[in-house]
Amino acid sequence: MKKLVIVLNLVCMFALGSFAQSMYGDAAKADVKMKYVYSFEEALKRAKEEHKLIFFNCFADWAIPCHSMNKLVFSDQEFADWMDKHFVNFFIDVTSREGRPLAEKYRIRFQAHYLVLDENGQIVHRIVGGYQIPEFKAILEKALNPKTSFAGMNKRYEAGERSVKFLSDYADILSVADQDGEVYAKIIEELFNKLKKKEWSKKEYWKFFTRQLKSVNDEMFKYMVENKADFVKSNGAEKVDRIIAGLYFQEIYPYASGKKAYDGEELLNIYLDMQKAGITENHHVYPLYEIARYRGEGQFDKMMDVFEHKLDSLPEQTLVALDLTLPEIKELDKKEQERVVTYLKQRAETSGAKKFYLAAINDMVNTDGIKFEESSFEEALKKAKDQGKLLFMDCYTTWCGPCKMMSNQVFKQKFIGDFFNQNLVSLKMDMEKGEGIDLQKKFDVNAFPTMFLLNGDGNIIYKILGGRDPRAFMEAIQRGMKQSTPYYILKSKYETGDRSVKLMADYFQTMSDAGELKNVDGEVKSYLATLKAPESYSVSAWALYDNFVNRVSDAEFKFLVNNRKEFAKQVGDSTVDKKIERVVFPVVIDYLKGAVSKESMDQVWKLVNSVQFSPEYSLTLLHKIISMYDKKEYDKMLDFYEKTVTSNQDAKVRLNLDVILHRLVKNASSEHKARAIAYAKKSMENAKPGAQGSYKALIEALSE
């Protein structure tokens, strides 16, 4: 399963769109029929009230498998009805600020990922990976049975149950949960200890046997090759050959993709072993061997002959991943580069990964982005010191999807390249290759991508964990460059007991960007509770409220609203009002989606209305609109849009109110929708160029 996830991640990238539900746009749209709740607390509450288990869709927008499940499984009405009957269905993007604490708590590391929880939030079942509906439903049925659920099987094992059938069933459950750790290894070991070697080839144990095979050097692999006839008799030649060839493929791929230094003798030994194992010449592992050989020998024309004519049988995802390594070859001459670009352009037109190919082509021909040093770490560090600049170091791995997104979508942006090339020295370092292995240990890099700003002495000035969209990335970089107290000094002062509000405002933001606080929101709130006036209204305290208080239900948000005037004295009315709007507006969206109750929404309006805002303020206008929506006064509401909203002097306020119009008239008559479309078209005519896309998307949504 992990191998599948990694291969998928090779061609996954993410970026945030202004209006689309997914960063992949229309390609990821799915008519999901599931009745989700979007609050963890609400899911727990309903589970207790309805005496149901919770199905937790641990969604990540960057993960293609998540979108595939939306299209193939969660858009099926019959399946959705079955799920609604048996579960409280909960959905959250685990990469969002709200979702990250849940991802940490439940150790969600791979996508697609699903949990079944009890009413107390305890794990009953874990499912990692995508499945077709029949198999997925069968897995969930096991979750509903206390004896066959993940939690139930754990209890049975702890109680001493050890029959071959139980161990086989238990291994199945652990496999679905992707628990390939010590427990799974122990179960499989116990299972195979109960079996005689001659039973290893039996069909019922084939899936467990193959999961044990990690490389061609395993004793079990050697046993299978030596006793291939027995395995073929029980499982078929196709399955057995696929496993054997697959493990040789695994050995060759690092050479073919350039991730491993060329070793002609080792490759020749692999070729001879494949011949001995009976792998026929028509298997796609042989063209991969040719690519590895020619790439290593620098015979790039022969290598491209293989790419162009011999890879038809290679799985598409693997071919895409292999294709996308071609721009990494630095030894190509101009003619060879042109041939590679031509090949990639042809593949772009026939592959479903067109945008990744275009990005790869851009990588070869575009020079607008960040110019990374082709040097060692020490050489790059010295250059930065000599020029009086910071060193930006991108710590990546070749299998990391967000790393590829940063390389292909962010680092290539002209405005980012212009800034970096003028103000920083930049270096990319593969953490699994060469000196990157030692640098990973030196800088304690545990997740990817991790990015650093280092001074000339190699001290960490700022650290950024995870991929960002271009604007968010630049904001983080500029925070790091402008911050008066660098990362390493902040840590030192914090560890010696400094808890001043100025230091803590920088500390929490810095460690949040660095990904070093598991529950940063909770820690910030605990710290805010210790502050007393006038510190609690200071500019530094405001930075904590602005960056980390993001829920209307938070006591800290109520404090912010109730003390709006005090904060406004420090940072200005507009700054405070925009913050309140950013917290409240998403709640209104969730209310229109049906994810927030009327009672809860009324409590929000009660809090907002406790402050005397300007009649032109966005939330003042929004409250009036929602009041008309609740009463289904569509004519009155559209009159309000045409007369009051359209005359508001703030273009951002108009846009924010306009883009929710499709939700407001969702249940209105066709005449009202036609009127809303006419309004949207007129608004688009008067909108600035940057807002045109949002209005186009609004009109499309209104027209559906």
Automatic annotation (TrEMBL):
Stretch forming the signal peptide: 1-20
Annotated ranges, domain Thioredoxin: 14-145, 347-482
Single annotated GO MF: protein-disulfide reductase activity
Keyword Membrane among UniProt keywords: no
Listed Pfam families: Thioredoxin (PF00085), Thioredoxin_7 (PF13899)
Example GO BP: cell redox homeostasis
Record carries keyword Hydrolase: no
UniProt KW keywords: Redox-active center, Signal
PROSITE patterns, alphabetized: THIOREDOXIN_1, THIOREDOXIN_2
Protein name: DUF255 domain-containing protein
Lineage: Bacteria, Pseudomonadati, Bacteroidota, Bacteroidia, Bacteroidales
